[in-house]
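Standup notes, protein team

Yesterday: finished cleaning the Malus domestica set.
Today: N-acetyltransferase domain-containing protein structure.
Blockers: none.

Input for N-acetyltransferase domain-containing protein:
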Amino acid sequence: MAAATGVIVELQRNSPNWATIVEEIVKLERKIFPKHESLARSFDEELRKKNSGLLYYREQHMDGEEVAGYVMYSWPSSLYASITKLAVKDTCRKQGYGEALLTAAIQKCRTRNVQRITLHVDPSRTPAVNLYKKFGFKVDNLIQGYYSSDRNAYRMYLDFDAS
C-alpha cells in the first residue's frame, strides 16, 4: 500500500466542492457514530451557521483523494468555543490525524480570542479522552445520559490565559 499524504483544509461555504465534501463527511459520520449521535441529517444546516467551521483532513492517494477525518467547531459566544465533532476514519487512526485536526481547530478557535474551548466525549472512547487530555483538556463534569439514557459524557474544557 502506497503511503498517503494529506493536508488539512477548511471547508469554505462558497467552495465548488462543498456538496461532495459534505457528502463524504456525512458517510463517515454515519459509519463512526451511533444514529442518535450523528449529525448526518443536519450536517449541511449546522455548517451554514455563521459561527461554525469545519476542517477536514484530505488524504492524497495514488488513485485520488478522500476525507480521512474532520473536526467541527463553533463559537457560540465571544467567551468560549466548542468542538462539536472530531472523527477519523477507522483505517486512518493512530497516524496523527486526530492530533493534527485538534491542533488546527484549537488554533482556529484561538483566533476568536475565546477564553475556553469545551467539548463532550464518551468516557468509554478512551483514545479520544486521552487525546484531549494530552492537549490539556480537563474533565469538568460527568453528564449522565448525555448521549442516551445509558451513555454518559465527560464535559471537558481547555482554558486560555486572559492576557
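Follow-up from PR in the comments: The beta strands are 5-10, 52-61, 64-74, 80-88, 116-121, 138-148, 151-159.
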